């Protein structure tokens, strides 16, 4: 938060959380920057009486002076006359909330955004057990965060990018929520996969039921086992697809690719996603050829060699480019 407008948005919502207009304004503001959600959650916690950071860590008097200086420096347009001007005196709690913004900003350099725990992977995969007992499996190039107090006041996980599989411990009193770019996924107890890509977000359910929705809208879908939803960035339509049991959505986790009379064009899609390469079928007459094979944790060259012999096709592989002809 860098100005009074941001403070107004959060405080108006905290004072009247049932107001639909305030909810919408808050939602739009939080989507402007990934760190805004962290700031809001910290302000909300302090608004409801959670303790502020230890005095030894923060210069409270200094922060108040910073706030007063900031408000004194708000520019005033001189040429235009003031019309219907009104002055609103902020109550003590409103001023305290504004000061809390500066306190939160002071934590940024040593705690990360709002004290959130952040986990990120590079080329490797990883897994971790969340405080509520749920398991989280991270694909390569994935970043997730969850708030302090996870499992007590909320069970909220934010996936900034990449792909993660969630095996959620059931808790009827505390829904498990995953925030992805523009999309919110909510469950009670289930196992599901979330992939946040450049084009949008995909949600696949292995067991249980999941609600996937565009943030700030009523557009949502209930997913059951075997169903995948695709939610595009800046979109409002939700596409769903039913997958047969032997699919490769979770191949990144199982490290096994399975093809059951799968057309070559679908095989290519799975290989591109699994090995992070670009594959072209130069001869489109080959696109309908079907592959029956299982590849347990094999290298791409091993897979391509088996495909070449099985389907009687030609394959070249150089760097991250593969050509089938």
- Count of domains: 3
Globular, elongated, flat, extended or rod-shaped: what is the shape?
elongated
What structural class is derived from the secondary structure elements?
Answer: alpha+beta
Helix share of residues? 25-40%
Strand segment tally: 18
Describe the biggest sheet?
A: 13 strands, mixed
Q: pLDDT under 50 segments (min length 5)? A: 50-58, 73-96, 98-113
Write down the CATH class of the largest domain: Mainly Beta
Number of helices: 8
Strand content: 25-35%
Walk me through this protein's architecture.
- Residues 119-210 form the FecR protein domain.
- Keywords: Membrane, Transmembrane, Transmembrane helix.
- Residues 257-322 form the Protein FecR C-terminal domain.
- The protein is an alpha+beta fold.
- The protein has three domains: 4-112, no CATH class; 117-242, Jelly Rolls (Sandwich), CATH 2.60.120.1440; 251-324, Phage tail protein beta-alpha-beta fold (3-Layer(bab) Sandwich), CATH 3.55.50.
- It is built from eight helices and 18 strands.
- The strands form three sheets. Strands 1, 2, 3, 4, 5, 6, 7, 8, 9, 10, 11, 12 and 13 form a 13-stranded mixed sheet that branches. A three-stranded mixed sheet has the order 15-18-17, with helices on one face.
- The N and C termini lie far apart (55 Å).
- The model is unreliable at 50-58, 73-96 and 98-113 (pLDDT under 50).
